[in-house]
Amino acid sequence: MLSRTLRGVVFAFGLLSPAFLFAADTAHEGEAPKQLVPPTVWAVISFAVVLFILWKKLIPVITGAMDDRAEKIRDVLEAADQAKADAEAAMATHQGNLETARQESRAIIEEGKRDAEKVKAQIVEDAKRESEEISQRATREIELAKESALADLHQQSVDLSIDLAGKLIHKNLSAEDNQTLIDETVKGFSDN
Looking at the domain assignment, is residue 131 inside a domain? Predict the structure, then answer.
């Protein structure tokens, strides 16, 4: 603390010393004061002292502040460059992910189309098979109905023929002939 006060006093004395040295001598009135040192020397000395003080005290502070500011600017620029590089890397990654997603979506769409074609082919095949089964079933049912109808017709024909034959035979045959015919028929069935 004392050294700072002492420096302040020396500094003040250095600044005020030219005023003491140039002070007019009041003892000799009417004469111009006599200067011990010419003013140019004092100007050079004052300039050197101010320059020295600036050089020792102010210039280091200014250069330090400028260096700090330059360092901060450098750090900010490096951070900006790093952020830019990170953003570009993220953008490249995003683009890669986007392209991968596009390829996957195309593959899914293609797979869906293939699956749809398979399902379509399966549906068509099932429909053909089912229509063939229905057609075969209908054909069988028609055949069965035809056979049934023919059997019914045959049965009716036989019944009608028997009735007709019975009526004809009944009129033409006597009871004895009728009994002989029945016996021969029964005998023919038992031989078989």
Answer: no
The answer to whether the Cα torsion of 95, 100, 103, 108 is positive or negative is: negative
* Total-model pTM: 0.37
Phi and psi torsions of 33, nearest 5°: -65, 150
| C-alpha to C-alpha distances, 55 to 5, 44, 60, nearest whole angstrom | 20, 16, 7
- The residue segments making up the domain with residue 7 are 2-122
**pLDDT tens over the chain, length 192 residues:** 446 666 766 776 666 666 555 554 455 555 655 667 677 887 888 888 888 888 888 888 888 889 999 999 999 999 999 999 999 999 999 999 999 999 999 999 999 999 999 999 999 999 899 989 999 998 998 988 888 888 787 777 666 667 666 666 565 666 677 677 767 766 766 665
Q: Are residues 180 and 150 in the same domain?
A: yes
Residue 130 in any domain: the answer is no
Rounded to 10°, the helix 59-172/175-191 angle is 140
